[in-house]
Request: fold
Amino acid sequence: MTTAARDEAARRRTFAVISHPDAGKSTLTEALALHARVINEAGAIHGKAGRKSTVSDWMDIEKARGISISSAALQFTYGDAVINLVDTPGHADFSEDTYRVLAAVDSAVMLVDAAKGMEPQTLKLFQVCRHRGIPVLTVINKWDRPGLEALQLMDEVRDKTGLEPTPLTWPVGIAGDFRGVIDRRTGEFVKFTRTAGGATIAPERAMSPAEAAESEGDAWTFAVEESELLDAMGQVHDQDAFLNGKTTPVLFGSAVLNFGVRQLLDTLLELAPPPGARPDEKGEPRELDQPFSAFVFKVQAGMDSAHRDRLAFVRVCSGVFERGSVVTHASTGKPFATKYAQQVFGRERSTVDVAYPGDVVGLVNASSLRVGDSLYVDDPVTFPPIPSFAPEHFAVVRAKDSGRYKQFRRGIEQLEQEGVVQVLRSDLRGDQAPVLAAVGPMQFEVATHRMEHEFTAPVTMDRLEYTLARKTDRIWAKVLDRESGVEVLERGDGELLALFAGSWRLNRVLRDHPDVLLEPLVAASE
Ligand code: G4P
Reply:
């Protein structure tokens, strides 16, 4: 069993696509699945409102807006490999979920719109990858449409991320005239052919440089010149530099036409790291062939009105997961039965009987599990907590109907456990009017919706003027509470957070109390 874990881990790649909304993440997901032949025709799996189906859009408000907030994982095989594509929510108003998902992956694909270059949400997500030491591949998407120049895009990637781009392919034909790519390692031309609406795998033809020159003329000559320029500048792939977060291999493609998708899958297999030993809380590695262990990176309830249950998504870190086995919940020491284990991608659910390191399993009715919790068999292990990100939006929440206070409390507790929002309390405000804290205001909408529809406790939300939070201690809390425009509240995890209405308030406190304890939280937007 133990070598099975090692062998299975070696053929797995667990990654997420990070991008700004509309860069083409859903389209790329479809295209990847199409290549792996999960579906026969693009458009069937991950469509948005108005497309064939909305597999990954589960909540009413998501449907109404045509966006996707939930995330789970899509697993498919590609040749001998098993690919786990962990879905990141794609709304412009980011929530913490998106960042937490990145705790579950071994690499990320940064998807860049060729016409727009590096956009803010892509950068935010990139920062989280850097913070976590996750290697990043870059795909320049939508090359079939007019856009920036390829070299200009490389400058943007370098300037905004600090990573040296090392293109593996280089486009032949400017943006809007996508003929194919140079495989920079073999020098061959890979010519793409369009299919109707990009609905099937685009046929490719490999050509020698001489054939390419004949067939593509100036476009080929120009691409070769640029590619040679990259060589001269040393922009060539170096595996160690990639794994150490110094460089990012780049591919060019068009998700909608399925161009460059095979190259991405092959690159993931060749260069992206497979699941490896994961350090525990003390920094000791949990080896792949040790008994089963996993950690919860996402908890979600009410995913589907047909299944009003609660799922905890775990990433397997070591050993073999076998459905039905009893595992230990590290934080309570209690046994947890894994009778119901599922793979979830949007509305599609299937039972998971066995899973290996790198896989994502949805545990059903896991009401005791919280984000960051560890599970194990035999050798105890606790994985490091998933950082909660610095909230920037705050609102007081109250039950509209005071007669429904019980439902209100239960709902707030549940949302807190799932990490939908952070919940801050103080004696002054009391339990009836806690403060909700969020990284993105969208989290408030989700909370409001769920309080009403799931917990039958409609709420009012009153936004507060605070924009900054810092950690402090009980002694300083007393001092800070006397300052105007500052309030100290206690978060569910026991952390005391001082909230400030703007940076000038914070600066004034720092000036008046040079010794004050005010520790920054992990900022999502640094
Ligand atoms: P997202 O999940 O990152 O938000 O993006 P999504 O895949 O939904 O793509 C956003 C829009 O960009 C879609 O157009 C999609 O068709 C288009 N798109 C994605 N990849 C490519 C590409 O490689 N080339 C071109 N030309 N377009 C691309 P839409 O008009 O919003 O939707 P649709 O009606 O076309 O599906």
In short: The chain has three domains: 2-275, 279-376, 393-520. The pocket of guanosine-5',3'-tetraphosphate is lined by residues 19, 21-27, 48, 51, 90, 141-142, 144-145, 254-256 (CB under 6 Å). The longest helix spans residues 218-232. Confidence is low (pLDDT under 50) at residues 40-59, 61-71.
